[in-house]
Design a protein that fits this description.
The protein is of the alpha+beta class. It folds into 2 domains: 35 residues, no CATH class; 348 residues, Thrombin, subunit H, CATH 2.40.10. 18% of the residues lie in helices and 28% in strands. The protein is built from 7 helices and 21 strands. The strands form 4 sheets. Strands 4, 5, 14, 15, 16, 17, 18, 19 and 21 form a 9-stranded mixed β-sheet that branches. A 6-stranded antiparallel beta barrel has the order 6-7-8-13-12-11. The protein is globular, with a radius of gyration of 21 Å. The N terminus is likely disordered.
Length: 404
């Protein structure tokens, strides 16, 4: 640390009413804590899971989420980041060739389920969107009109409780009975607390759950990076879902799992992130402070954007793109080779290497994670690049978990 920085910190502490000697003690303690945090950040990354929810607890969760609680849940903010603060130390990433794993539309149409608790429809029109943008990275934002077809129907709004507060995020079905979202939507890395009361509504439209996709789906347990992984390229989490009758997992209850209703997305990892195009989805629930887009969380929102910058301000293995989506969109998927209604012609003609070559499209490649607040990048979002070390290794850990 430079001497000038030390003097500035000492002066700041003294202004708070501490004398020079006490200030030096506090400064030494702060430096020791910073060094300890850096050492902890360089420990081998470890993944962990939340406690398993049992059948009785699912009934309690269903009762907990009244329409009033659903409507008043706070949108979980995209993590605010000051670019003047050095990023957390990270590990030398393990990378490899680009990999593609296919998704799958729902196999058969199932009867609609209107028995689940519905959110309160507010009867509002979809947000009116600004006609143009002046930010560094060009993008377009829409109220998604394809919410009721594959692959969009795999995307939904996630509600949960964390540290005593009810929140909403976004998530998507990425594997059978599995959601992908941001780590900060399932786990508080700062204090080690897990989210509880997790419930997912796919294809939410005008604040109303669509029984066509099975209504409410409840989280059985979550998995994410829990230590040695403080940097934002680890902001990825998975949620294991109960079957439709809120027991069993992966169809073991003899009732359908979520993918029977929604299908699931493919995913891709590694490769060159410097020239990619994404359809970026989520349920933002706060008005944007710059273009005043009046997001309210009741509509699936899509932003189309290309790579703006990789490793912005030294945040390695992350990508920044243009998007005005706000709090509540955390965890929503970034999809390359996006093809509404599985348009095979679009897949075949998509120029991104790999899309359309495996018989499919619609590969998740990142999730909405954080925004830079200094400088103010209100019209951009950052996400972790899906790589072997942060995404595939976590998914491999998740796949070892039982699903009785």
């Amino acid at each position: 640390m430079k001497a000038s920085v030390r003097h500035e910190e000492l002066r700041s502490i003294s202004v708070l009413g501490f004398g020079p000697r006490a200030a030096l003690v506090l400064l030494a303690a702060a430096m020791a804590t910073s060094q300890a945090n850096a050492q902890n950040a360089l420990e081998p990354p470890r993944a962990g899971t939340s406690p398993v929810v049992n059948k009785a607890e699912v009934a309690d969760i269903a009762s907990y989420w009244t329409p009033e609680r659903l409507s008043s849940a706070q949108p979980m903010d995209l993590i605010p980041v000051d670019s003047n603060v050095a990023p957390s130390p990270t590990h030398e990433p393990e990378k490899g060739p680009a990999g593609f794993v296919e998704g799958q539309p729902p196999i058969a149409k199932l009867p609609a389920d209107a028995s689940e608790q519905l959110l309160q429809a507010l009867g509002e029109q979809a947000p009116l969107l600004a006609p143009g943008f002046n930010y560094v990275y060009p993008f377009s934002t829409y109220a998604d009109a394809d919410y009721n077809m594959y692959p969009d129907q795999t995307i939904g709004r996630l509600f949960f409780t964390l540290d005593g507060v009810n929140y909403s995020c976004s998530a998507s079905v990425i594997r059978p009975h599995t959601l992908v979202t941001a780590r900060h939507c399932v786990y508080n890395y700062g204090n080690g607390h897990w989210a509880t009361n997790e419930v997912f509504y796919p294809a939410l439209f005008n604040g109303t759950s669509n029984g066509k996709y099975g209504g409410a789906w409840y989280g059985r347990r979550s998995a994410t990076w829990t230590s040695g992984s403080a940097s934002l390229d680890y902001d990825i989490g998975f949620i294991q879902l109960f079957d439709h009758n809120h027991t069993g997992c992966g169809g073991s209850s003899t009732t359908p799992p979520i993918e029977s209703y929604t299908g699931y997305l493919g995913y891709t990892y590694n490769g060159d992130f410097s020239q990619r195009q994404w359809a970026i989805f989520g349920y933002p629930a706060a008005t944007n402070s710059v273009d005043h887009n009046p997001f309210n969380g009741n509509w699936m929102i899509r932003s189309d954007a290309a790579t703006g910058q990789v490793a912005s301000f030294g945040y390695t293995n992350t990508t920044e793109v243009g998007s005005d989506q706000t709090g509540g969109t955390s965890g929503g998927p970034w999809i390359i080779g996006y093809s509404p209604a599985v348009n095979s012609t679009f897949c075949a003609n998509n120029t991104y290497p790999g899309t359309g070559t495996h018989g499919g499209c619609d590969y998740v490649n990142s999730v909405n994670s954080f925004k830079f607040t200094n400088p103010d990048h209100s019209l951009a979002i950052n996400g972790p690049q899906f790589q072997t070390y942060n995404f595939l290794n976590l998914l491999s850990f998740y796949n070892t978990l039982s699903c009785p």
